Q: What sequence folds into this?
């Protein structure tokens, strides 16, 4: 990945050295997801008062404000600029969570923002490849509703389980003949595949195995 990202010059001039790209390769621009929380009254730290006056402080810190944005070294905040230097499009999202406000920030809102950020990036940096970097927030580790997740799969085909996306069998699969092959996650009739069938298609021996482990299975 590093070969696709410009390096800073080792001299004191700090000039950027462009990557040496081969035909068909694109420069990679890293975009770091940044979140922050603040209250509406956090910035009120000074006030002008007369000699006998006393400020009446609010008991509440005010409305909670949550913002999420993507930052890169070229734009600062990921944006598309108009010719007059006004913002045409941006990846920034702001919400006001609380009991009487917006829903708390979660992975669904984050995924929606990522879709928005991809569109903004493509317009702002056509011909470049985006690299999105996240920290270890629990929301960032969440999976989409159609992601491959074994504990969301049924023992039999169909049912209430979500129809998951077709996948590429990884090179860590025990049988090398299936490496990098596409595996359909639905049957010919359009039903979601059961867990057993998915494993058998990869030549796993699942005879006499439980569809799900119970907590007691880990006590022995």
A:
């Amino acid at each position: 990945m590093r070969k696709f990202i410009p390096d800073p010059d080792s001299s004191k001039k700090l000039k950027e050295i462009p990557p040496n790209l081969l035909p068909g390769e694109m420069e990679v621009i890293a975009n770091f997801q940044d979140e922050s929380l603040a209250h509406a009254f956090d910035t009120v730290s000074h006030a002008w008062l007369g000699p006998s006056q006393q400020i009446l402080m609010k008991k509440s810190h005010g409305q909670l404000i949550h913002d999420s944005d993507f930052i890169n070294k070229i734009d600062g905040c990921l944006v598309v600029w108009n010719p007059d230097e006004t913002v045409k499009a941006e990846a920034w999202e702001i919400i006001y969570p609380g009991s009487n406000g917006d829903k708390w920030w979660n992975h669904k809102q984050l995924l929606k923002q990522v879709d928005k950020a991809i569109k903004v990036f493509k317009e702002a940096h056509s011909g470049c490849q985006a690299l999105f970097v996240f920290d270890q927030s629990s929301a960032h580790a969440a999976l989409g509703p159609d992601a491959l997740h074994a504990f969301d799969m049924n023992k039999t085909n169909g049912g209430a389980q979500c129809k998951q996306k077709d996948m590429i069998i990884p090179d860590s699969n025990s049988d090398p003949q299936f490496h990098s092959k596409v595996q359909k996650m639905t049957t010919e009739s359009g039903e979601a595949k059961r867990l057993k069938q998915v494993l058998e298609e990869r030549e796993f021996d699942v005879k006499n195995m439980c569809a799900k482990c119970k907590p007691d299975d880990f006590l022995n």
